[in-house]
Structures are given as C-alpha cells and as structure tokens.
Write a structure and sequence with these properties.
34% of the residues lie in helices and 26% in strands. By secondary structure, the chain is of the alpha/beta class. It folds into 2 domains: 3-216, Rossmann fold, CATH 3.40.50; 229-379, CobW-like, C-terminal domain (Hypothetical Protein Yjia, Chain: A,domain 2, 2-Layer Sandwich), CATH 3.30.1220. Strands 4-3-2-5-1-6-7-8 form an 8-stranded mixed sheet, with helices on both faces. A 6-stranded antiparallel sheet has the order 9-10-14-11-12-13, sandwiched between helices. Helix 2 (68-83) crosses helix 3. It is globular and about 70 Å long.
Length: 380
C-alpha cells in the first residue's frame, strides 16, 4: 500500500510551518521532511525530519552538485521511500522559493508509485504579506531566497507559480481585512482553487494526483485561464481575438501592458510566425515571451495523435475556419485596471484590415523585435 505524500510550498515560511504543524497534529503517524537550501550553492543542504512530537533527525547532506534537482534526486526521494513504511502521511515542507511542480513530477514516477502516492499540493500564504508580495519586482537574490547559483527569478514570479499550480491554498496570519483581501486576490489568480485556513486544512489523504493533468492546468496551450472578473478594486480583463498581432506594435505596447497590470498570462500569435504558439507570462513588471511549440493547425492531421487529449480538446474549443486553433487569449489582472484601455491598446496591435488583405508575402516583411528574444531562447 502506497503512503500518501503532500507537498507544502510557499514563500512565507511562517505560514508554511503553521500548515505543516497542523497536518502533523491532525494525522497521527505523519512525518515531515524539510531541506534548508540556504547553502545549496555550496553543495550542502540541511535535512530536518520531524513528527508532531518534535525533531526525529537533523542531518547535513553533501550533494554532487549545488542545485534543487540534486537535493530532490539524491536525498528527498530516498528519504521519503525510507520513511514511507512507518508513516501514515509524508509531508514535504518545501524551501521558500521552490516551485512545487518540479518536486511533484519527481515524486510521481513509475519507480516510486508503489511506495509513494502524491495526494495534494498545498501552497501556504501569509494573509498579511501575500497581496503585497505578488506586486514586488525584487529578484530572489535580493531577498536571500535564491535556490541555486544564477537564480534570476523574481519573488512575485515564484509566488504566482506556487499559487497557480497548487491543488489547494492555505491562508495563515493577518486579521479579518487581510484575509478578505487575500481571498479577493486569489479569486483572480486561481479562481478554481479552494482556499482554506491553517485551522481547517484540506483533506490530503486522497487518491493519487496525476501530474500530467496538473501541468495541463498551467501550461500555455491548455491553461485554465481566469475569466473577466471585478471584485471591488481588483479587475481581471480577458482579451480574446482571432486576427494576428503585428509584432512591432505589440512590442511597443509591452511596457504599458505589464506596468498597468500585476499579473498577466496567456497564449498569442504573431503574423511573422503563424506556426508557433507563443506564451505570455508577466508578473510585477517582469515579462517573459516564449515559444511554446506549434499550433495544431500548423501540424499534419496525423500528428494530432501525438499530443494530449487536453491539447486536442483546447484546440477544438478554439477552432476557427480561417485560423484553426490560432488565437489571442491574454488575461490581465490588477488594481483599478482600466479594462477599456487595456482592450483598446491590444486591439491597436492587431493587423489592420489593409495589412491583412496584403497577404502572407507582405506579412513576412513586418519588423519583428521578438525575433531576437526568441532566437536567444532557442540557442540557450
């Protein structure tokens, strides 16, 4: 019989510890494993194992390479497998800046499935700090929370991914107003994810999760994006169009789009690269545009069997006689966001009717400032 495993992620250590404490209290025989990654770049981590009675083991681990992947592969997985037979529940208390997806996918493997059963991915949030931290443009290196050499991620970027990947969110601390504001923010960032308090955490000893399905909830081609929503001062705007974007006009609009919103994401296409699905991901002023693979309309029909059912379903729902599954689907969230302004700005970046009628030969001559960025990613 496999042992249930729950991941507890979150930048806010106090909230994460309170959540882990509650799980240990509520589940006799549960064991929590935590790796302190402050020295991981030097090839060392400290592993703490505890149950509700206190510390069971505190060991310094030396790694072949100083990175999170090594810590998971060389120590976390073997430790979980070793502890599984005697534990009623295994709680993985993740380091502050760890994004849970990579750890979840490392646990959900064929070779460990008979021993370990991933049942929940929780992100613990401090209700007082979360609404502020999701707007912060600090890099992790500036806050002392980086998890590897050369970690260039931003604090708000990590927080957004921890929130959006989780199967449940757990709020801790703050007063009633903080709790209310946090719930309103989370309504926009992760509208389908249940929110709990540390005093009443979600059920975690359930059926095994499928990490392929978890990934499909956030991957650009299949992501479950928020809908148009307004809760008091917070607004989410959905922009959904068919016509291709002019790369130079969109590039010129990027700064205004990301500074007016706190969080934005989605998928889009440029007239200069009609075969490629591009992913838009921005938070707290930092924006990323990446090539997320081909549109299904650009593939021969026989190749459709090679993609997931979720991808085929998403394409079918978005299918258009002229453009196939090519679509502009971007979502912007921010306080007092001017929905009309965002929509008008994005609409101005679309090909005009005259440009569209000029045809593909003319489209390829459009200046494309994104080409350099995407080429750098391809060569990395």
């Amino acid at each position: 019989m496999s042992t249930p495993v729950v991941l507890v992620a979150g930048l806010h250590a106090q909230a994460r510890t309170a959540t882990v404490d509650r799980l240990l209290h509520d589940h006799p025989g549960a064991v929590a494993v935590h790796h302190d990654l402050r020295s991981v770049t030097g090839g060392r981590v400290e592993r703490l194992v505890r149950d509700r009675s206190g510390i069971l083991d505190l060991t310094e681990i030396r790694l072949a390479h100083g990175c999170l992947t090594c810590a998971v592969r060389e120590d976390l997985l073997p430790e979980l497998v070793r502890r599984a037979p005697a534990a009623s529940l295994l709680v993985v208390d993740l380091w502050d800046s760890v994004e849970p997806r990579s750890v979840a996918e490392a646990i959900d493997r064929d070779e460990t499935r008979d021993t370990l059963r991933l049942t929940a991915v929780l992100t613990a949030l401090h209700a007082e700090y979360m609404p502020i931290d999701i707007t912060r443009g600090d890099r992790l290196t500036e806050t002392g929370l980086s998890a590897a050499d050369g970690d260039e991620r931003h604090l708000a970027e990590v927080l957004a991914r921890q929130i959006e990947y989780a199967t449940a969110l757990v709020l801790h601390g703050g007063d009633a107003d903080d709790d209310d504001l946090s719930r309103r923010v989370l309504t926009h960032l992760a509208p389908l994810t249940p929110v709990h308090r540390t005093t009443t955490p979600p059920e975690v000893r359930a059926a095994a999760l499928c990490t392929v399905e978890l990934a499909e909830r956030v991957d650009p081609a299949t992501a479950r994006l928020p809908c148009d929503t307004r809760t008091e001062e917070i607004t989410t705007v959905v922009w959904h169009r068919r016509r291709p974007l002019h790369p130079a006009r969109l590039f010129d609009a990027v700064d205004e789009l990301v500074t007016e919103s706190v969080r934005s994401r989605g998928r889009f296409w440029l007239v200069t690269r009609p075969e490629r699905l591009l992913a838009w991901d921005a938070v707290a002023g930092a924006v990323s545009v990446e090539d997320a693979g081909p549109w299904l309309a650009a593939l021969p029909e026989a190749a459709w069997e090679m993609v997931s059912p979720a991808r085929r379903t998403a394409a079918a729902l978005d299918w258009d006689a002229e453009y196939g599954d090519r679509t502009q689907h971007l979502v912007f969230t921010g306080p007092d966001l001017d929905a009309g302004r965002v929509t008008a700005l994005l609409d101005s970046c679309l090909l005009t009717e005259a440009e569209r009628e000029a045809g593909p030969a003319a489209w390829t001559t459009c200046p494309d400032p994104f080409a350099t960025i995407l080429a750098l990613q391809e060569s990395a």
